[in-house]
Amino acid sequence: MTYDLVIRTRRAVLPDGERPAAVAVAGGRIAEIAARDAPLPAAFETDLGAAALLPGLVDTHVHVNEPGRTEWEGFATATRAAAAGGVTTLIDMPLNSLPPTVSAGALAVKRAAAAGKLHVDVGFWGGAIPGNVPSLRPLHDGGVFGFKCFASDSGVPEFPPLSFAGMREAFREIASFGGLVIVHAEDPSALTDPADGGYPAFLASRPPDAERRAVEQVIRLAGETGVRAHILHLSAADCLEPLAKAQADGLPVTAETCPHYLVLSADEAGGPAYKCCPPIRDPANRDALWQGLASGVISCVVSDHSPSTPDLKQGDFATAWGGISSLQLGLPAVWTAARARGHDLADVVRWMAEGPAALAAVSGKGRIAVGNDADLVAFDPDAPFTVDPSRLRHRHPITPYGGRTLTGTVRATWLRGALAGDAPAGRMLTRKETP
């Protein structure tokens, strides 16, 4: 047969290791993986030269904010940024949009807002908030990939937190249909208002103990209800001990962290672009998070892309919006730090593609394997660049990475075998209908 596309590379990052290969694409899927110089007739062929071939990244933690707060981001801009950063699948968080995705009706509104705007494939999380337990099963039946809840204030009034008693009720319902719950884990009783607008005061207001208390409570509730539970954006390394024990005991509890916790540190937080919740902590904590990744206690690295309008990122650390925009920069940021610590591209693929795809059970994604979608990234791991915020594709060019030199450049991104980013060719994914 004649394939639609053949990509040849000296460095294909495959499930069984890195090696030279030729990847053949037909009908949007990977049809064959052969030796690099194998004769494979194709309508189009490309050789990546020094660039590596990675599976498209899967980012399961993105705040798109459309509809309702599209001036903060939006599906068109977020998915263009994703494609530019090698992300071919993202799952949109249920809050910061209006209405939040806490009912089947709100999910329909979200899907209508996304139609025709997607440059990569997009799925949706549902939300668990006080009073919406009857809506959880209909959302699950509607195809959401799981349910997000907050233990502490979310920052927006329409998505209030659950008490731990409320979590127990929601977890039981979600466990009854085999669903997944993902938790912003900070115990509100351990949080305080910052004493002033500086970063040390902000950091002190959200101590590691706030995360650990909430994580321990989620672990207890997972053991009690049997629900699959995932800890979002882990920043406090103090949580690794209880998580490791829970996993060793066989509880279905997993955790993620984010590029900013692995790359940045508290001593360089120079302005509100660095503000996020939970906060970026000290270098020793950062080192321990890397150890948690290496050991497998942390299984995913995802962006928590949480943009806002520029006016909300003004002021000081007490008043500015807490969110970091990094959807386009996650791969080079993590790779720059990972290679300096002795990790290889296979590790990064495991954390940023395979792990998130497995977490959300997004089939056909996250691995270069026959039968999977031909979601692929040409990534030059040795090419440095300096981050120019004006070249970012998300709506507002605000980033703590501005002016930083990173190593690793995305040369091309393919979505189901077609170059991504120029035209909106992405699909809306559901839990029942993943490709």
From TrEMBL:
Any GO MF annotation of the entry: allantoinase activity
Xref: InterPro entries: Allantoinase (IPR017593), Amidohydro-rel (IPR006680), DHOase/Allantoinase_Hydrolase (IPR050138), Metal-dep_hydrolase_composite (IPR011059), Metal_Hydrolase (IPR032466)
Domain Amidohydrolase-related stretches: 53-417
Catalytic EC class: hydrolase
EC number: 3.5.2.5
Highest taxon, organism lineage: Bacteria
Cofactor(s) the protein requires to work: Zn(2+)
UniProt-listed Pfam families: Amidohydro_1
Pathway(s): Nitrogen metabolism; (S)-allantoin degradation; allantoate from (S)-allantoin: step 1/1
Keywords recorded for this protein, A-Z: Hydrolase, Metal-binding, Zinc
Assembly behavior: Homotetramer.
Family label: Belongs to the metallo-dependent hydrolases superfamily. Allantoinase family.
PANTHER family from the UniProt entry: ALLANTOINASE
Protein name (database record): allantoinase
Originating species: Actinomadura violacea
UniProt gene name: allB
